[in-house]
Amino acid sequence: MGNKRSRVNKRKVPKVKGNQFVKMSSNEVADVAEFNTFPVSLRPKPVLPEAVDRNMSADSRPMEDEESDLNLIFYFPLLKEMFVEFSRCQEEDCNSQLTLDIELLEKEGLCQSLVVNCSVCGFSKSFRTSRRQSYVTRSKAGKRYCDVNLRTVLAMHEMGKGYEGLSKFCTVMNMPPPMSKTSYDNCVDEIHWAYELEKGVSLQKVALSVHDDTKVAPTEISQCTVSLDGSWQTRGFSSINGVVTCMYGNKCIDYDVRSKHCMGCARWRQQNKNTAEYVEWKSKHVCPANHSGSSSSMEAAGALNIFKRSVENYNLQYVNYLGDGDSSSFATVQEAQSYGPDIVINKLECIGHIQKRIGSRLRDLKIRYKGQKLTDGKSISGKGRLTDAAINKLQNYFGVAVRENLDSIYSMKKCILASLFHNSSIEDERRHRFCPRSKDSWCSWQKEKAEGMQPTFKPKLGIPQSICDLALPIYKDLTDDSILQRCLHGRTQNANEALHGLIWQRCPKSIYCGRKTLEVGVASAVCTINDGLVSMKYVLERMNLKPGAQLEQGFVKSSSKRARQSTRRSSEKAKRRRKELRASRKGWADAEKESESGTYRAGSF
Q1: CB-based contacts of 95: which residues, under 8 Å, 6+ apart?
Q2: Which of 513, 528, 547 is the last residue of a domain?
Q3: What's the mean per-residue pLDDT of the chain?
């Protein structure tokens, strides 16, 4: 039964809900009453212990004055009910109940106009739910925008949405309609202006880092290696918008936005152009289209512009051009001789694209010989043959062979050929003739042979000799000295691809956007990849908007989460797991294709 005395003497702790006082002494009650008689401005502020600020999380810290400067979405009937319950008229000898109403005709976009009325003495006072920013000295000097409208338009652009998305949001939230399309476009102009200033500062910082790395003063011309790549808003070669990005390491140093469409010009194309209305429109129209020609030529035109202005803008010469090799951009830049005839621009190959070439050519080989019998009397595909999973492994082995032999073209070529023969079903001597012959070799057959042991090696793939004979010319073509010489740098265009991903998050490929919208999205992505999410804080400050503590805390959380994910995904364990998943998916695809009788091809039914 336990100790009865201990159970009796054990004090029960009362349960407290909210801010209820359990029990106070008479002196405590008097102190509280005296404290409540002080004016609010004279009441002493409570002093928090130092440990609270350092150890408490951002969510559990008490909200300070600057943290209370935020925007809220509230349900107006509840606000009105609370206002009626606690408010009285401040006019002398009135003290009547006040009412709170909305003036819908006085609203500015998402900024509502509220009015306080007294039905007895006629007292009336109106105020807005959002403050206005002070005007910015630019083309529309004197124009003032509401804080909530600029922030909302900026948020829509960051999420890849436009005016229609904002209208749908307001409709679903049972809110009044947003600002007009003209006001929305004016906010976009303001955001575009702020991002243009911020991205200029960001690109200049990257240029200064190049001069620091090359130990050349910013006033002198420095030479460096850059990676250029183009990306289009829609797949294929019919896109009306394109972007060419220039990266130095993992930072963007320049970019060029290309567009060959103008909505205004398209609207007038089928109408009479001999009218006074057209002449007036044409005199004021600034056409956003800056490219003429095919969509595929956007990359070459953008790359040429980037090279032409590198010395003028940054005192830099891009003497090493890292490209993907599947466009005419390098030939265009080389022929232009932007730095004069004495400066030779070297072509470098992206290792990732070289690795993709072997996979693409092997898949083309598989399609070309589909349904035909090879020299061994069997087809090219099927179990134990050239499956998608086998091609994926050969492609990975090709990339590993290039990356691990950056010091010698001979070693690189030998290791690439070894990746094919080592995984074949040819007899042992020919199969392992390119494998390293030492006790520390990655080839277990050569390792066991060097140690004087009987080799027990079994190939993982076992590609038949008939398929190896067909694949060997492809390997010899991609191991040409001129190609491998351009791979000794060991670099890829992954940084360009990462930037393109950020761009098309802000300007989705499924939604049409004009050049200005695309420029805002590209500038936002460039500032993010160069300076992080904190760059938006400076964009808001350029528009005379106070970022706010909630925005800064949210960006800190997002940045730390992004850093943790990057560290986790770059670990060897995560990389190995991704490769296993890709290989398993390729295996499932092979099994499904073998079990299906038909093919998904035009004219095959």
Answers
A1: 88, 89
A2: 547
A3: 80
